[in-house]
# Entry
Amino acid sequence: MGYDLVIFDNDGVLVDSEPLANNVLAGYLTELGHPTTYEESVRDYMGASVRRVHELVLERSGQRLPADFDETLHARICAAFEQELKPVPGVEEVLGALTAHGIGYCLVSSSGHERIRVGHRVAGLDGWFEEEWIFSADDVGLGKPAPDLYLHAARQMGVEPARCVVVEDSPRGVRAAASAGMDVYGYTAMLPADELPGATGYFGDMMQLPLLLQLPV
# Structure
C-alpha cells in the first residue's frame, strides 16, 4: 500500500550511532561498578530511553545511579559523536526520494532533542529535518515500547496511524510502532530479523527501502 508519512527511528536508522552510544554506556556503567558489556548494553538498552537504564540498574543492584548520570552520559556520547558519527549509508538517497515524490517524513527517538541535533549536525543530516519533524521520548510520558511516541508524531504531522509506515531497528521500537497500528519495517543492520519480531517486513540495506515503499530512487 502507499503511505502518507514515513517515520524513521533515529539512532541506528538515520545515524550510525548505536555502536558508539552503547560502547560509551557500557563503559560508563562498568566504571560506576555495574559491569556491562557492549553486547549487554545493546540487549538491554537499545531503543530505550535513559530512564530504562536507571530502572534496570536499580532493579538489579538496589543502587541508584549518580544524580549527574544523564548529564555525564550525554556529554560522553556527544563527544564520541563529534569524533566518529556518520550517517547510515544510503539514508540521504532515501530522504531525497521521499522528497522528490512528495511523501512526508519525520523521526522519533528515545534520545533527547539536543543529542538528536548534535548527531545530525555531525553526520550532515541537519538540512533534511525541520524542528517540527523531530519527536523525542522527552515529548511524551512513556517511551518505547509504548505506542505513545509514534501516535504523538502521527498526530502532530496530521496523518492517521494507518497511513504511516515506520522504519525501526530495535525490538522495543518495532513493538511500539505495531502497537500504534502502523506498518513497520525492521532494519537489520544491527540485529537480525528474528530479534525484531512483529515487523511487516525486513531489509538490511537502506537502499532497499524505496523499493519496499514502491519508490524508485
